[in-house]
C-alpha cells in the first residue's frame, strides 16, 4: 500500500527560496565569468591602448608613464581586480574615438537600440504567433505554403542586403519613407533628448511634426527587424502547435464540441507558452546584440553602430564597454525568462 507524502507550506517555501538563491548564485557567477572574458579579450588584444593615447611619436618615458597610470604594467590578476573596482564605481574608461567616458556614450546609444529592438519584437512576436497558429489550423493550405515560403526567405536573405533594398525602393525611388537616421536635421537639434527614446522625446516636445518624423524614420528598420524575428517565431509556433494537436487533451476537447480555433487559443497556446516565451526572449537578445548591420545600413545611432565605429577605430575600451553591456542584457533577459517560464508553466516548476 503506497502512502502519498504531502509537502507542507514550510517545505514548499524553503524549496522556492533554495531555487531563488541558486538562481541568484548562478546569475552572479555568470556575470563574473562575463566580466573575466571581456577583460581577457581586452588584455590580449593586439591593439596597444597606450599608443592610442600618446601617439606613435611619443618618447619612451612618456609611454612608460602613461602605461603606469593605466595600470598596464601590473599582473593580469591585479589589473582585473582594479577593473572590477572601477566597474563598481561606474567607470568603464574613456573612449579614444569620442574622447568621452564610455558610460556616457552607452547612455546615449543604448536607448536607440532598445527602442528599435522593442518595437520590432512587439510587431514580430504578435504577427509571428498569430501566423503560426493560423498555419497550424490550415496546415497544407495556400496560406500555410505562402507563410512558410516568406519565413524561409526571412531566415535566408542577408539582413543588410534587404535593408539596402528597402532604402533603395521606399526612400530613394518611391520616396514613401524617411531616410537614414532617427530624425531629420530640422528636428534633430530642436528636440531635447530627455529620455533618449525618439518617440517619447518628440512627444514630450509637443511638436506633432517631430513625432510623425520619428515614426517615419522607424518604419523601415522596425519592419526589417520584425520580419526576421517573425520568421523564426512563426516557424516554431507552427511546429509546436502541430505537435500539441496530436495529444489526448486535444482529442477530448474535440469530443466535447470545441472548435479548432478555440482549441488552439484556449488549450494549445497556454501549453506551449513556456517554449514561445523562451524563443521570443532569444529573439529579443539577438536584436539587442545583432542589430549591428541594421543600424549601420540605416545610420541608426545605437549600440551596434557605436561598436562598429569603435571596431574600425581600434578603440578597445569602447568595444569592451559595449560588449559588456550587451552581455549583461543577455544574461539578465535569459534569467528573467527562466523565472517567467517557471511561473506560467507548472511543469517547469517540477524540474
UniProtKB/TrEMBL annotation:
Bilayer disposition of the protein: Multi-pass membrane protein
The keyword Acyltransferase is assigned to this record: no
Keywords (A to Z) from UniProt: Cell inner membrane, Cell membrane, Membrane, Transmembrane, Transmembrane helix, Transport
One of the Pfam families matching this protein, by short name: BPD_transp_1
Compartment(s) where it occurs, according to its Swiss-Prot or TrEMBL record: Cell inner membrane; Cell membrane
Keyword Transport: yes
Family statement: Belongs to the binding-protein-dependent transport system permease family.
Protein name, per record: ABC transporter permease
Organism: Serratia aquatilis
Amino acid at each position: 500500500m503506497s502512502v502519498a507524502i504531502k509537502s507542507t507550506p514550510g517545505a514548499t517555501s524553503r524549496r522556492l527560496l533554495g531555487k531563488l538563491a541558486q538562481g541568484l548564485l548562478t546569475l552572479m557567477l555568470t556575470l563574473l565569468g562575463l566580466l573575466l572574458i571581456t577583460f581577457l579579450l581586452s588584455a590580449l588584444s593586439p591593439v596597444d591602448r597606450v599608443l592610442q593615447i600618446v601617439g606613435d611619436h611619443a618618447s619612451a618615458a612618456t609611454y612608460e608613464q602613461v602605461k603606469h597610470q593605466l595600470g598596464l604594467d601590473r599582473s593580469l590578476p591585479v589589473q582585473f581586480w582594479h577593473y572590477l573596482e572601477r566597474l563598481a564605481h561606474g567607470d568603464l574608461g574613456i573612449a579614444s574615438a569620442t574622447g568621452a567616458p564610455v558610460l556616457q556614450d552607452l547612455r546615449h546609444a543604448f536607448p536607440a537600440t532598445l527602442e528599435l529592438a522593442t518595437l520590432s519584437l512587439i510587431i514580430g512576436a504578435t504577427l509571428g504567433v498569430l501566423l503560426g497558429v493560423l498555419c497550424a489550423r490550415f496546415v497544407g493550405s495556400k496560406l500555410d505554403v505562402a507563410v512558410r515560403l516568406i519565413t524561409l526567405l526571412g531566415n535566408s536573405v542577408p539582413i543588410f542586403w534587404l535593408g539596402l533594398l528597402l532604402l533603395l525602393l521606399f526612400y530613394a525611388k518611391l520616396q514613401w519613407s524617411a531616410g537614414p537616421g532617427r530624425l531629420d536635421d530640422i528636428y534633430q537639434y530642436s528636440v531635447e533628448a530627455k529620455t533618449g527614446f525618439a518617440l517619447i522625446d518628440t512627444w514630450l516636445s509637443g511638436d506633432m511634426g517631430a513625432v510623425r518624423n520619428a515614426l517615419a524614420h522607424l518604419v523601415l528598420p522596425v519592419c526589417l527587424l520584425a520580419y526576421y524575428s517573425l520568421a523564426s517565431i512563426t516557424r516554431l509556433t507552427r511546429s509546436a502547435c502541430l505537435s500539441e494537436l496530436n495529444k489526448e487533451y486535444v482529442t477530448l476537447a474535440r469530443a466535447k464540441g470545441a472548435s479548432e480555433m478555440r482549441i488552439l487559443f484556449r488549450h494549445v497556446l497556454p501549453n506551449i507558452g513556456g517554449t514561445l516565451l523562451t524563443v521570443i526572449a532569444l529573439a529579443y537578445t539577438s536584436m539587442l546584440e545583432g542589430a549591428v548591420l541594421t543600424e549601420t545600413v540605416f545610420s541608426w545611432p545605437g549600440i551596434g553602430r557605436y561598436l562598429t565605429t569603435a571596431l574600425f577605430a581600434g578603440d578597445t575600451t569602447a568595444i569592451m564597454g559595449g560588449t559588456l553591456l550587451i552581455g549583461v542584457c543577455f544574461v539578465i533577459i535569459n534569467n528573467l525568462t527562466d523565472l517567467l517560464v517557471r511561473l506560467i508553466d507548472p511543469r517547469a516548476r517540477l524540474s
